[in-house]
């Protein structure tokens, strides 16, 4: 391995460990890592041959490298989508949608489970943080439901209905995070890394259509299968539907701002799906945000105070930079060459299956989807690229589609999982058991159903 690659890899691993342990906020750690590599670029980024070239300006090139993530269109796309999430919260539209679903589907526990999953899926295209969506919008509503049935946290009564409802949020956020490129922040990072690594561009529509067959099957089967494997003691009741009905009366009729937001959401969705050649997804998002400001759905002060959006913006930008640095320093080239010798003789399909499974189940070692994506995705892509005959479009799409569904595997796999587990309704042994079962089912569905359809579609 080149000396600068060793040095950069050391900083990168230190960054990942820091983001997992969080002695200070994770974004601050990635920001510091970029700063260290920019200042010490002669040791971390550039080879001796480059530094000996009199026309090579290390100071200029290192600063250019350190700032390029902030000009990424995908990073700005996720920032714009965060403002969508803010508008859902400010107008109350997100809460209204959730209550309507509960009102009409809450009389039976199984249909209520479906309602929870569908709510998450409906909010996902415009909420790029599954923590904000599931943890900030869906969870505050659903946590009010178990006490209506005398089902309480950290109590044997949690199995009456509370445990099942909480697990449905895990199922919902996992499926919805993989359904849309804007359904989870690491998805945006993954698209950027795929483009930089293989030159393959995964559009919003490509992502959606690639996961749609698997997504529909999982939406239909997962709530029912959870009902069988983790059956609640209470299966019928009308209290929750009545409660949702009263809550809707309390918040009143739909407002003009909510109607305006619905119109902007529909326009954005149409432009994303059918007019990508005329206007980029990022431009659509920024246009929608501008119209929100003009129509006073959100105010500029609301945006400047929305620390979550700015924090994610900086975090994604710096992670994109650091992941790109693995290639810039020479680490990826060295690692892919080394690994390709060990995978020599494997068929392309076997190689893809091994790499996707390795990437997916390695999440047991991570407490952050973003850290997992930034750390392993460039490496897995590099290995695939180094094996002759591997179709990189298939590998890339399967890898990125697996990011959301891996969030069900452990209590710490993703932000909403931590919140749901912390509520005390799902016991540790049940969470690990269900996570293992559904983790296997989700990846099996992607490889056994999604992959063959993807092959037909792409080729």
From TrEMBL:
InterPro entries: CitT-rel, SLC13A/DASS. It is found in: Membrane. The keyword Cell cycle does not apply. The keyword Transmembrane applies. It holds the Pfam family Na_sulph_symp. It is a multi-pass membrane protein. The chain crosses the membrane at residues 6-21, 28-45, 65-88, 109-126, 164-185, 205-230, 259-275, 281-301, 313-335, 350-383, 395-414, 434-454. Keywords: Membrane, Transmembrane, Transmembrane helix. PANTHER family: DICARBOXYLATE TRANSPORTER 2.1, CHLOROPLASTIC. Belongs to the SLC13A/DASS transporter (TC 2.A.47) family. DIT1 subfamily. This is Anion permease. It comes from Chishuiella changwenlii. The lineage of its organism: Bacteria, Pseudomonadati, Bacteroidota, Flavobacteriia, Flavobacteriales.
């Amino acid at each position: 391995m080149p000396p600068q690659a060793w040095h950069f890899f050391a900083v990168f691993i230190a960054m990942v460990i820091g983001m997992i342990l969080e002695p200070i906020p994770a974004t601050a750690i990635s920001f510091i890592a970029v700063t260290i590599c920019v200042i010490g670029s002669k040791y971390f980024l550039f080879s001796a041959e480059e530094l000996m070239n009199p026309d090579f300006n290390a100071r200029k090139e290192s600063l250019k490298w350190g700032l390029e993530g902030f000009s990424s269109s995908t990073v700005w796309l996720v920032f714009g989508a965060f403002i969508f999430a803010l508008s859902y919260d400010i107008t109350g539209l997100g809460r209204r949608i959730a209550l309507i679903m509960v009102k009409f589907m809450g009389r039976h526990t199984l249909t209520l489970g479906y309602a929870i999953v569908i709510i998450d899926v409906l909010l996902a295209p415009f909420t790029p943080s599954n923590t904000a969506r599931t943890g900030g919008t869906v969870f505050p509503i659903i946590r009010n439901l178990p006490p209506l049935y005398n089902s309480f946290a950290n109590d044997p009564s949690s199995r009456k209905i509370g445990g099942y409802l909480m697990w449905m949020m895990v199922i919902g956020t996992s499926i919805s995070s993989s359904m849309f490129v804007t359904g989870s922040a690491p998805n945006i990072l993954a698209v950027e890394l795929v483009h930089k690594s293989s030159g393959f561009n995964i559009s919003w529509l490509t992502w959606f259509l690639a996961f749609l067959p698997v997504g529909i099957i999982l939406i239909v089967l997962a709530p029912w299968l959870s009902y069988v494997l983790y059956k609640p003691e209470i299966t019928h009741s009308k209290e929750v539907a009545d409660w949702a009905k009263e809550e809707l009366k309390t918040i009143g009729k739909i407002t003009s701002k909510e109607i305006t937001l619905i119109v902007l959401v529909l326009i954005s969705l149409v432009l994303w799906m059918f007019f990508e050649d005329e206007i980029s997804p990022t431009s659509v998002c920024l246009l929608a945000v501008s119209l929100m400001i003009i129509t006073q759905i959100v105010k500029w002060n609301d945006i400047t105070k929305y620390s979550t959006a700015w924090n994610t913006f900086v975090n994604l930008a710096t992670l994109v930079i650091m992941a790109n640095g693995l290639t810039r320093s020479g680490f990826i080239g060295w690692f892919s060459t080394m690994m390709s010798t060990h995978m020599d003789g494997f068929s392309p399909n076997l190689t893809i299956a091994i790499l996707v499974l390795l990437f997916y189940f390695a999440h047991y070692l991570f407490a952050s989807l973003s850290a997992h994506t930034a750390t392993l995705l460039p490496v897995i892509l590099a290995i695939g690229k180094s094996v002759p005959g591997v179709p990189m479009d298939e590998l890339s799409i399967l890898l990125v589609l697996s990011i959301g569904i891996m969030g069900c595997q452990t209590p710490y796999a993703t932000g909403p999982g931590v919140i749901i587990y912390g509520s005390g309704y799902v016991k540790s042994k049940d969470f690990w058991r269900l996570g293992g079962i559904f983790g296997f089912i989700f990846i099996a569905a992607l490889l056994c159903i999604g992959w063959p359809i993807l092959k037909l579609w792409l080729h």
